[in-house]
Design brief:
The structure is a single chain. Helices cover 66% and strands 0% of the residues. The protein is mostly helical. It has a domain of 72 residues. α4 crosses α6 and α24 packs parallel to α26. It is elongated and about 85 Å long. The termini are far apart.
């Protein structure tokens, strides 16, 4: 099937290369040809943007969409951008709500005229898509579409896409915020939960310009249900507010901790714990997370493990981690065992205090937690030899013959441990007692069939 109108419009455009491009291809259906058109527009955006302005009114909408989709990136003169946006917006039924607002926002660094901002505002508040919450379970889909998550649905709708475009515009400058603030005030009351997850991004960007107003709008936004509280954009907003405006956002945090959804409780626990790192007022709420159910304790563990190195009150973080090292839930212990990750990323260990000793003696010293510690020791420029040897001895106690099982994680850890012990041995030229401990540990690793130990000993012999 060919498209005579598209063929005629492209040939009429005064550019030999475009004519040749058409002649060299076999034209298929509208969707197939639109893909070709999108690819060419990315190469020559201004040329094809002007072509769009000359298309007949009855041209298939796929061609308009293809050009709009390919234009983001600040590649057009402002007057041409306005003309393209207005032409796309004027199409019957306004079918380009998914793609037109992001295209406009991608040019926002240059400062956009009110007419373009108003186009984005129209799609963010008046486009009929979505008309249903497709992410919810239904007779057609037991688990709901878009993975059953409202945000995945939201970003694939016209109003949701426009909300994220508006967020980008707000981030680009105060003049955009001044013009779009009233629109955001309407968006937070959108009837769709999927869309509201996207509107949360705009509230986050509004914090740059007016924190009290952004927080007030966010509180209105969050009154629609627990699935909204569990969405990632809600937590992103709280990342920027919970440690600084704790009392203001406490109603949302409290609702998250009381939510029937585990994801919301876990996210709420993360945020009250983040606030508790610097605010005494948040610590009773963090204690509630530490003594709550497994999802709440898991969220608390994630924050404590990530902040041991940089926390202002290290003793508070250590006490929480030590408690969680003995948690009855293995997933919670596993999160707490990641306390070495910041040290790995920094390439240093520094003073470890009581937390290292407590970790070695706890049930959290198992599985991935063991490997995480040895990776930190491997990455550290100066790993404490005593800690390494004690960790190695504890590893043999916990893993035993599993250190030689090449199908398990213990084998990889045993190989890393062998290499670390070998490094410690070579660095201990003036410490005969330490060298003896290194050799004793290698012997014990060899006894349990530790993977890589024989190679390490061979290297030592050479």
């Amino acid at each position: 099937m060919t498209d005579p109108q598209w063929r005629s419009a492209l040939r009429a455009y005064p550019e030999d290369r475009h004519k040749q491009w058409l002649e060299d291809r076999v034209l298929g259906g509208a969707r197939q040809l639109a893909g070709e058109l999108e690819a060419r527009t990315k190469v020559e955006p201004e040329r094809f943007a002007r072509l769009m302005l000359s298309l007949p009114e009855d041209t298939h909408d796929s061609y308009f969409e293809a050009i709009v989709r390919a234009l983001p990136g600040g590649s057009l003169p402002l007057d041409l951008l306005v003309a393209v946006a207005e032409r796309a917006h004027a199409r019957p039924g306004r079918p380009h709500g998914r793609w037109l607002p992001p295209m406009i926002a991608s040019h926002g660094e240059a400062g956009l005229p009110p007419a373009l901002l108003d186009l984005v505002a129209w799609y963010a508040t008046q486009d009929p898509d979505p008309s249903a919450e497709l992410w919810r379970p239904s007779p057609e889909s037991d688990t709901g579409y878009y993975g059953g998550t409202p945000h995945e649905h939201g970003i694939n709708t016209a109003r949701g896409s426009a909300a994220e475009a508006l967020a980008r515009l707000i981030a680009q400058g105060p003049e955009h915020w001044t013009h779009l603030a009233p629109t955001l005030g309407r968006m937070v009351d959108d009837p769709s939960m999927a869309v509201r997850t996207c509107v949360a991004e705009a509230c986050t960007q509004a914090l740059r310009h007016d924190r009290p107003k952004a927080i007030a709008l966010f509180l209105r936004l969050c009154n629609l249900g627990d699935a909204l509280l569990a969405s990632p954009p809600i937590e992103r907003f709280l990342n920027y507010t919970a440690p600084y405006d704790f009392e203001a956002v406490l109603p949302v945090l409290s609702a998250m901790l009381a939510s029937p959804l585990a994801e919301a409780r876990q996210a709420g626990a993360r945020q009250v714990m983040r606030a508790a790192l610097t605010l005494d007022a948040a610590r009773p709420w963090a204690d509630r997370a530490l003594t709550g159910d497994a999802p709440m304790r898991k969220g608390a563990a994630q924050v404590l493990a990530a902040n041991l190195l940089a926390a202002p009150d290290r003793a508070y973080v250590e006490a929480g981690l030590i408690r969680l090292f003995h948690d009855p839930d293995p997933e919670v212990r596993g999160e707490a065992a990641e306390w070495t990750r910041p040290f790995r990323e920094a390439g240093r260990l520094g003073p470890l205090g009581e937390v290292a000793d407590a970790f070695l003696a706890s049930p959290a010293f198992s599985g991935a937690g063991i490997g995480s510690l040895f990776e930190a020791l491997e990455d550290a420029s100066e790993a404490p030899a005593d800690l390494l040897l004690r960790a190695g001895e504890r590893f043999i106690e916990v893993v035993g013959l599993g250190a030689g099982d090449t199908a398990g994680s213990g084998a990889f850890t045993a190989q890393t441990l062998s290499e670390l012990v070998l490094r410690a041995y070579r660095q201990a030229e003036d410490a005969p007692d330490l060298r003896r401990r290194c050799l004793d540990l290698l012997d014990r690793l060899l006894e349990v069939g530790g993977y890589g130990t024989e190679e390490a000993l061979d290297t030592l012999g050479r």
